[in-house]
Design goal:
Length: 115
């Protein structure tokens, strides 16, 4: 298992959802992009409760594939936003933005198949 992504989970999801890997990855990427945009929008307007809700939604998607360290950043972001700790929430969002590109690439490569 990769420290960023459990590729076996993607394979399991194919069987559970009856969908191909490219379609599953496209859905996950869409859900995560939307949630991350919601987080950024909420933080830009100092709306920590909305940021917590968006982080929770993103965690649900990331949990499906055990995507670390994105999961850790999202968990911290959600918890700190619920505590109304703006500084910790912003720091967790920065870690999320640092971790996301690598996970996104891994998902895209997994969807593309062996190559």
């Amino acid at each position: 298992m990769s420290s960023e992504l459990d590729l076996e989970r993607l394979t399991e999801l194919q069987g559970l959802l009856g969908k191909g890997l490219p379609e599953i990855v496209k859905t996950l990427l869409s859900e995560l992009h939307r949630a991350f945009a919601d987080i950024d929008r909420a933080l830009a307007h100092d709306e920590l409760p909305a940021a917590a809700l968006a982080a929770h939604a993103a965690r649900n998607s990331a949990l499906m594939i055990e995507a670390r360290p994105v999961l850790g950043a999202l968990a911290e972001l959600e918890a700190s936003a619920r505590r109304q700790d703006a500084a910790a929430t912003l720091a967790a969002n920065q870690r999320l933005h640092e971790a996301w590109p690598s996970l996104q690439r891994r998902l895209e490569l997994a969807a593309a198949g062996p190559g």
